[in-house]
Design a protein that fits this description.
The structure is a homodimer of 205-residue chains. By secondary structure, chain A is α/β, with parallel strands linked by helices. Chain A has helices at 10-21, 41-46, 66-74, 84-115, 119-143, 156-165, 179-189, and strands at residues 2-5, 27-30, 54-56, 62-64, 203-204. Chains A, B: Residues 83-205 form the GST C-terminal domain.
């Protein structure tokens, strides 16, 4: 498999982390999204929405959207529960991640630590951070009662939420206010076959 | 089942439309989100994220996030494909809907037609509408080649995307630029057991 990706992306890292936990090998093809490399005609032919990551299967099929790739790769593994109510809980947290969490936690990090600040971004920063703290508070409340988000074990719900939470401080968030979240981050980082977000060992030209 | 909802919400309407297409009865409990009724202590006890819709099952379990409710209700029906690659395509479009479509198409509609405009909202409107048009263009490109988003038949991917697309003009979007999208909207509105977004026949006190 080839993962079309941008190394600092938490959305890409979700897939890299799951692939590593599953013990699956892949190649990482890098695009500098700050330079617009995910908007080229070539890239738009593999994802018309112009966003990394895109998972390319061995047979040449392409799958865009990080949480769709998590879903597909996790089938028939412990990271996707068998019970349909638990599956629905996983989808709930994947939706929460894409709607309430990622736009408010990933964007400040991207602006402050990667792409640079602009007046239009600065005007949105305080509101994004307020909503990002609200998302972290929802996670804290949930993780006070259980070690993982669904089914008392590590699933793709945790992997999806881990990706941008563990680097939230790069977006100006103080995680010390969320002790249950910090404990959960620690549990994930101790998994066997864990890889860090900047691991580029799968990188190809 | 009880759907905790706000009648103009496209996110709630997704679930109402699927329930109707499935021929399932339910009761609709209404919250005026403009008045903050989804932020009360009572509401937060059923969804700590403070957002409608929430599906309440007959046994008292609660499920937040509209696309999670679609996933759960569609199990073992024609609206959720059996093939895992097709399932991943559905999840891809549900993710696209929550990340690239809904925030850019639903928010302008909510501001212009329901909640009212504020200076902070006005400052974001042009950018939202630009990104909303980009999402509609991605849909148009896909629907030029096929009648439905996945598996050549109506699935929850279509239902999720239909909800806010069919009322996009309330957010200032001109759908006449997207003939394939308009044809697809028409195919969905012709389904047997179709209900409109303002159908309040399930409403309870």
């Amino acid at each position: 498999m080839i993962l079309h990706d941008y190394l600092p992306s938490g959305n890409g890292y979700k897939i890299r982390l799951l692939l590593s936990l599953l013990g699956k090998s892949y190649q990482l093809k890098h695009y500098d999204i700050v330079k617009g490399e995910s908007r080229s005609a070539e890239f738009l032919s593999i994802n018309p929405n112009g966003k990394i990551p895109v998972l390319e299967l061995d047979d040449g099929r392409y799958l865009a959207e990080s949480n769709a790739a998590l879903f597909y790769l996790a089938q028939n593994s412990a990271f996707w529960p068998e019970d349909s109510w638990q599956q629905a809980q996983v989808i709930k947290w994947l939706s929460f991640e894409q709607y309430s969490h990622e736009p408010n936690i990933a964007s400040p990090r991207f602006w402050l630590s990667h792409a640079g600040m602009t007046p239009a971004r600065q005007a949105q920063l305080a509101d994004k951070q307020q909503q990002g703290y609200a998302a972290l508070a929802v996670m804290e409340q949930h993780l006070k009662q259980q070690d993982y988000f669904v089914a008392n074990r590590l699933t793709i719900a945790d992997i999806a939420l881990y990706a941008y939470t563990h680097v939230a401080e790069e977006g100006g968030f103080d995680l010390q206010q969320f002790p249950a979240v910090l404990s959960w981050l620690g549990r994930i980082a101790k998994q066997s076959n864990y890889v860090s977000i900047d691991d580029d060992s799968a990188l190809i030209n």
